[in-house]
Amino acid sequence: MLTFGLVSVPVALYTATQSHDVHFHQLQRGTSDRIRNKRVNERTGKEVDFADIVKGYEVTEGEYVIVEPDELEQISPGRSRTIDIAGFVDLADVDPIFFDRTYYLGPRGKEYQKVYALLVEALEHAGKAGLAMFAMRGKEYLTAVRSEGGLLELHTMHFADEVRDPHSEVGDLPEKVKLSPQEVKTAEQLIGMLAIEWKPDEWHDTYEEQVKKLVQDKLAGREIAVSAGPAPEATNVIDLMDALRRSLETARKDGPAEEPKKTRADRTPAARASRSPKPTGGKKSTATKASTAAKTTKRASATGKQQLSQLTKAELYKRATDLDIPHRSTMTRDELQHALEQAGRSQRAAS
């Protein structure tokens, strides 16, 4: 039961994600014999029955407080029957680092669809998430209930003391670094040029796909070819502006990945008017078009084999995405370059 204030709606909990990891068994080399792990007394080396195993909390080295299973059972939170929302917070205020697992919440019966839809709509418009404590599988969780895609999602969350302090975990964090306005502006331009729309279906676990391909190749007796591109080198502080400029030039040659979404300012009549091209004479307009076409042709001719060889795998993958090259997510860097070269030859032949 999901409750907020005096409003209640019966809901069911559904798992939202699943893992596709490739699972292997451990075998003794040269045989098909499986390896088994046994519970062994580390002092005597003898196997211990499960019934003789208890939990111990180490107080000092070698000294334990023994806790019996029934003692833990007595204080276990059990399973919550109610998700009682204690309050609502702005989603923008919740750092994603606090989110853990995700579940779907669905109405438990058609008669509760209206109340369910009301909460979905209200949370969507308000941009809020409801916080609640919730117990399942013998553990208590802090949870957030939010609206997404026309339904409710429940996220289990980390407590504040479970999130590590980055300043004590991460070394060499910058404190006061002097950055020139030009460096910041150039970096922002590069980010803008590389801006893309979030399309989760285009992203794949390429390592898992390569592992499956490796297994199938070995099963078929095919030769295993291992190809790895060179690791990128760290950017030297002295060469920072040069690296930013070259990255920006490459992004400009590739053209914008997608048209950026308009901001509120862009939607105003004044903003649209200020961005409208000024009327020009016919000859000047024709000359401008011809000049633009010439520049475009020149840029297109510069995307040859030599330039592709200088790009990183991420840059090659971006180009392959723009050209909608199939199976790109499973390709190595060299395979991406080869596919792009073939696509370029096909385009030139067609023109």
Automatic annotation (TrEMBL):
Keywords from the UniProt entry: DNA damage, DNA recombination, DNA repair, DNA-binding
InterPro entries assigned to the protein according to its UniProt record, in alphabetical order: DNA_bd_Ku70/Ku80, Prok_Ku, SPOC-like_C_dom_sf
SUPFAM superfamilies: SPOC domain-like
GO BP annotations listed: DNA recombination; double-strand break repair via nonhomologous end joining
Span list, region Disordered: 250-351
Listed Basic and acidic residues bias regions: 250-269, 315-338
CDD domains: KU_like (cd00789)
Domain Ku positions: 45-175
Gene3D superfamilies for this protein: 2.40.290.10
Pfam families: Ku
GO molecular function, one term: double-stranded DNA binding
Biased amino acid composition, Low complexity: 280-305
Subunit note: Homodimer. Interacts with LigD.
Protein family: Belongs to the prokaryotic Ku family.
Function description: With LigD forms a non-homologous end joining (NHEJ) DNA repair enzyme, which repairs dsDNA breaks with reduced fidelity. Binds linear dsDNA with 5'- and 3'- overhangs but not closed circular dsDNA nor ssDNA. Recruits and stimulates the ligase activity of LigD.
Listed name of the protein: Non-homologous end joining protein Ku
Organism: Kitasatospora aureofaciens (Streptomyces aureofaciens)
Gene label: ku
